[in-house]
Structures are given as structure tokens and as C-alpha cells.
Amino acid sequence: MSSILMIVTGANSLTMKDGTQYPTGFWAEELVTAHRDLVAAGHEVTIATPGGVTPPVDAGSLDPAQTGGEAQAAELSAYLDAIAADLAAAIPVADVDASDYAAIVLPGGHGPMTDLAFDANVGRVLVAANDAGTIIAPFCHGPAALLSAKRADGSNAFAGRRLTVFTDEEERTGGTGENTPWWVESALRDAGLVIDSAAPWSDHVVVDGNLVSGQNPQSSASVAQQVIEALA
């Protein structure tokens, strides 16, 4: 059994380009799939958020129109209810010692665009974990958190690394559209990371050493499986 840290957004809204507030949080399918599969494989998952707040679920991610039907929405809700105590007991990222964990998993939702991408403590943890060769597995919008991983000279600790992320095309066509305040894929490119994208909405995982990334919600189970295999 390995100890895994799951860093989750604590933000419940995203300020859009026009100044309006877009309700958000973590994407249910992503957190549930990763948490469920990692625990089923025998690993211990600790949840952390900025400030130790209870991570909010994006209500849209529990809409049957988004989940693929009433049964899937009910299944996601039931799992979140089952781990409600774990979510409420989220530890502050500021208290995290990266050396305590064999892997760090970062699910998405638009929330990371509000907090994880700019949180110095998230950056500290990711830099330390990366330097130690710890498995780091962000997916969908989770890779936004890598933007916080800056070294003393201002460079990004993941510059030059290959990964995938929710693409700008996916954002335009099935995300928040042209009112998106900033584009995660473009921001990662600007920070020096190398983006490896597949067709929109396809299950796509990229492994570059200790960095395991997934493109979108459809990639959630594949990311978890790659982490499980790496830990084995």
C-alpha cells in the first residue's frame, strides 16, 4: 500500500472574462474515478486543499446531462456521500510534506484555474515532489496546478516536460467557451511545457518519467491505472 496525496481545488467559482462568476469546483467524475480506483487497488488517499477547506463539487458535473444519465449521476453522488467525511477532513496544502507521499494526484474541474494555478504552497509541494521523482498525476484542468511550480529564478519546474491537458479546443467547444478568462493549454505552453494532445474528448494519457497526465474526464480511469501500475 502506498500513501497518495490528492490535491483538490477549494474554489467554488471562476471569474470570467466579462467579470461574471462561473460556479465551479472539482469535477465529480474525475475525483470519484481516481479516488475509487486508487483505494480499490489498496492505496491510502489523503485529500488536501488550499486552506484545508472542504472541496466543493461542481454541481454541473452531477447533472445527468453531463454524466451520461440518471444512473451515473446517482452513482457519483453516492460515492461523494460515502467519502464526505474524508472531503471535510481535507488537510491544508501548507501543512503537506511531499516526502510523505508516493504519488500526488490532481483532478480537475474549473476550480484549479482559480486557486491551484496560483497557490505558492501547491507550487512548493509540486517542486519538491518532482525533484524527488514522486509520481505526479494531473488531469483535465488539474495540470493548471503545474503553473504554480516555479523555481527561485521564476522558471517553471516542469518546463520541457511532455503532458496533456484539457485543450483550448475542448474549452471553446464544450467548456466555458470564449468567455474563458484564460486558457490552460496555452498558459502551460507559455510556461515551457510541451503539450501532447489527442482528438477532443478522447481518452488520452501521456507519461513522461514521473509525470502522468490525462486530457479530460474521459481519461480519468486511464490516469488512475497508470498511477497504480507505476506504484506497483
Which properties best describe this structure?
single chain; 232 residues; alpha/beta; Rossmann fold; five-stranded parallel sheet; two-stranded antiparallel ribbon; 11 strands; 17% strand; globular; Class_I_gatase-like
**Can you tell me the CATH superfamily?**
Class I glutamine amidotransferase (GATase) domain
CATH architecture: 3-Layer(aba) Sandwich
Q: What number is the mean pLDDT? A: 97
Q: What proportion strand?
A: 15-25%
> Could you tell me the radius of gyration in angstroms?
16 Å
Number of strands: 11
**CATH topology group:** Rossmann fold
Which assembly state applies to the chains in this document? single chain
CATH class assignment: Alpha Beta
Largest sheet: 5 strands, parallel
Helix content range of the residues, please?
25-40%
What sort of overall outline do the alpha carbons produce when their principal axes are compared?
globular
Supply the helix-strand structural class. Answer: alpha/beta
**Number of domain modules:** 1
Family: Belongs to the peptidase C56 family. HSP31-like subfamily.
Keywords: Glutamine amidotransferase, Lyase, Stress response, Transferase
Protein name: Type 1 glutamine amidotransferase domain-containing protein
Pfam family, one: DJ-1_PfpI
